[in-house]
Sequence to fold (490 residues):
Amino acid sequence: MILARVVGTVVSSHKAPKIEGIRFLLLEKIDPVTMQGKNDFVVAMDSVGAGTGEIVFYVSGSSARFTDTTQGKPADSTIIAIVDNIEKEGRFTYRKDN
Amino acid sequence: MILARVVGTVVSSHKAPKIEGIRFLLLEKIDPVTMQGKNDFVVAMDSVGAGTGEIVFYVSGSSARFTDTTQGKPADSTIIAIVDNIEKEGRFTYRKDN
Amino acid sequence: MILARVVGTVVSSHKAPKIEGIRFLLLEKIDPVTMQGKNDFVVAMDSVGAGTGEIVFYVSGSSARFTDTTQGKPADSTIIAIVDNIEKEGRFTYRKDN
Amino acid sequence: MILARVVGTVVSSHKAPKIEGIRFLLLEKIDPVTMQGKNDFVVAMDSVGAGTGEIVFYVSGSSARFTDTTQGKPADSTIIAIVDNIEKEGRFTYRKDN
Amino acid sequence: MILARVVGTVVSSHKAPKIEGIRFLLLEKIDPVTMQGKNDFVVAMDSVGAGTGEIVFYVSGSSARFTDTTQGKPADSTIIAIVDNIEKEGRFTYRKDN
Fold:
């Protein structure tokens, strides 16, 4: 799974019937050490109610269909977790403000 | 899913029987912030009737077979949405002209 | 799917039993605007009888098994079309000589 | 499969129900000759009880669901082995301290 | 499929039960024109008895499970052929010594 920041939304009124009602979030992949964006973007379906600014990880490939939200749908990237913290070699590189 | 601009078409008269009658569109991946093309191209099957110049997103991998158009077909990239707008941190980077 | 030029063949006498009798072609990915090779190569199974010099597109991933030639076989790249022409924004970047 | 070093953990309290109870490890891909990190990170599910500092390899794609830990789950990267040693052309580039 | 040279082995005593008894080979991807290594490595399961120094190609993704050796196993890269020769535009870039 890949770490990313939710940076926006993508809206489509003309789409495959199977994806009606799904939210599409714009994600920017991040470096989990510096927490900087990598200027590399992906559109993901959201299975966890993530919002702009949150750090998430998403699953790619066929496993993107293995959530209740995306089952049977043409998904290749699905957010499956909102991240609370990232720890690297004993130090937090990220802690979510609560 | 990946954002791209439809930039053309690819025509083949000699192809696998299962893909007879399918439209093949040439897509150029875009940077969703600047909306510039990345000079990185993919051939996609079209499940939504997209046309040249439109911004779309396509699904990759096995999920490219999960549309009515592409079910059971050797597809690895299928357009599943024509994009109306892209919003990044409260600002539109793209709005479709209607 | 990805556009490529057939540039050669790969021969193996010692291989997995399931791929006996399959032709393996060496493909060089191309830039579909300049039609130049990208010096990036892949070995593909051939489902359409492509020959050296032809422009083709191939399908990757599990869908590479979705042709009559490759069904049930350990394929991750299968040529599914010989390209007649590529059109980008109203101009042909490639037209096959007939 | 790809060689990587376990460098940390990723914690999420808000995630897809199917992945409750799974450990998420932060991996840094390595060059198996120099054993240096490549500054390229992935979040993996752990099927073998790996710990920080260990060299592992993980499996990607649908096969990431083919362990007892990850079966039926939205996994695209699963650690399947802790590495004892890596040998390249007759020399060890890595030997685990026991 | 991708061309690579077998450059070594990876040994693990602590691994997922399903991959007990499988050989893990270290592959370096090659440029099939110059036959030089690309300093890009992958760990592959071996279905054909390949040895160090041999040129092979391996299959990625779900198709890596489509050999007798790897069926049902968490494999994403499996060697399916030992290469005898590579021909590019009428010239051999590689011929195996017999």
